[in-house]
Design goal:
- By secondary structure, the protein is of the alpha+beta class.
- The chain has helices spanning about 40-45, 70-80, 95-120, 125-145, 145-150, 160-180, 185-195, 205-210, 215-220, 225-235, 240-250, 270-285, 295-305, 315-325, 390-395, and strands at about 1-5, 15-20, 35, 50-55, 330-335, 340-345, 355-360, 365-375, 385-390.
- It contains 15 helices and 9 strands.
- It has a 5-stranded antiparallel β-sheet, covered by helices on one side. A 4-stranded antiparallel β-sheet has the order 1-4-2-3, covered by helices on one side.
- Helix 4 (about 125-145) packs across helix 5.
- It is globular and about 55 Å long.
Length: about 400
């Protein structure tokens, strides 16, 4: 049986099934292991891990601790409540904006690659080249945020570092917009998102792309990248305080377990806290050489749970409403046994988006793509519901092929 246990109740002899944190938070080689000593428990607590999942069939139990299913049920109930408020209305169709978004994605990725190369060579960052790209991303978000955000869900392992920066910029701009921030602040936040990992240019490639857990020494090198990035960007007089703050503090946490300054609640700026949520969300949903990305829906559930300690709870909930419980581009299994890709959120219910169905799992074959509005009843273009997110790898399909019907 799997149980969710507070870290204060841990003892040697318990089997850790899940550390309940993003991969860059914990210093352990594995996610699943037998707790062997009090020193391991102290190391866990020092890393800001407040609760874990234990497997009672493989180690000691904890009386009265809730089961994993019970905690998940409570999370689901909370998410249903969060999903009630309205989401952003788009200005252009998804199909129309996807074409422009593909060009912007390509241009922005190339720019980040150049910025990283310049930083590695000790050159100053030319903001004249960066600002127009942020503006293009912002304008795409204003027209239809789902297009660019959907395209950026697809990342290759080789280009991850560059695409991650473009994703963080895009998501942060959308987040600012959904929270009603002014154009100047939104643009500066976008600059911070695009440049936030500039310090990784100084991390050796064999560490950055290591196909396994990092050693303590390697971990320490990676954790230097916010400070290194700040030191690089501060030399460019046109990089403002918002972008510098996001670069330096996007790994800080409310419980002061983050880095580089161990800032706690009240010390971390609003935009740095927003950037922290966006950064983790994009990182844990992407496939890397050392871990498999999780679905967007599962990532949002984890961020909700981690917001008890690491993230601002209100910001975390607002981010969920910004991207949707099932973001555009998510592949889902419907109750009817059909696979579908989410193409648009519903205006008032994030659990009932509009989808394109394209595959019947009962017959194990493709079907003619059809748009289904899951908020509508049977006979009115609906009559189905999402059972769970599905992995495209499991079915060997590219859901983005079916993002448009006709």
């Amino acid at each position: 049986m799997l149980k969710k246990v507070d870290a204060s109740h841990l003892k040697p002899g318990m089997y850790i099934h899940d550390l309940s944190c993003d991969w860059m938070t914990h210093p352990f080689v594995r996610n699943r292991f037998m707790l062997a000593s009090d020193e391991e428990i102290r190391k866990m607590i020092d890393a800001g891990i407040h609760d874990v999942v234990i497997d009672c069939s493989k180690g000691l139990d904890v009386d009265h601790a809730p089961t994993l299913d019970e905690t998940r049920q409570r999370t689901e109930e909370a998410l249903v409540a969060i999903a009630a408020p309205p989401v952003i209305v788009t200005r252009t169709s998804l199909a129309e904006e996807l074409k422009r978004a593909a060009v912007i994605r390509h241009q922005a990725t190339g720019l980040v690659r150049t910025v990283m190369q310049d930083a590695r060579l000790g050159k100053a960052i030319e903001l004249d080249n960066v600002s127009p790209v942020v503006q293009n991303i912002t304008e795409s978000i204003l027209r239809n945020p789902a297009a660019l955000m959907g395209l950026l869900r697809i990342k290759t392992k080789d280009d991850y570092t560059f695409l991650h920066s473009v994703s963080v910029c895009t998501l942060l701009v959308a987040f600012c917009r959904s929270r009603g921030m002014d154009a100047h602040t939104t643009h500066q936040a976008g600059l911070g998102g695009l440049l936030h990992d500039t310090g990784k240019a100084l991390v050796p490639d064999h560490i950055l792309n290591k196909p396994g857990r990092l050693t303590d020494e390697e971990f320490a090198i990676v954790r230097k990248h916010p400070r290194d990035g700040y030191d690089i960007l501060v030399k460019s007089p046109d990089v403002g305080p918002i972008a510098l703050d996001i670069t330096l503090h996007h790994h800080e946490r409310r419980d002061a377990s983050g880095y580089p300054d161990q800032q706690g609640e009240g010390a971390i700026s609003e935009l740095a806290q927003m950037a922290a949520i966006v950064d983790v969300y994009d990182a844990i949903t992407a496939d890397r050489c050392y871990h498999k990305g999780i679905s967007a829906a599962e990532a949002l559930r984890k961020i909700y749970e981690w917001s008890k300690f690491h993230f601002h709870p209100t910001y975390a909930q607002e981010f969920m409403r910004c991207v949707g419980i099932y973001p555009v581009g998510t592949m889902v299994m419907l109750e009817s046994g059909r696979l579908a890709v989410v193409i648009a959120p519903h205006e008032t219910n994030l659990l009932a988006p509009k989808v394109n169905v394209f595959f019947n799992t009962k017959h194990n074959g493709y079907i003619k793509p059809e748009t289904v509005d899951l908020s509508r009843p049977l006979g009115f273009g609906g009559g189905d519901k999402i059972v769970r997110p599905e992995s495209p790898h499991k079915w060997n399909v590219d859901p983005m092929r079916f993002i448009s019907v006709g």
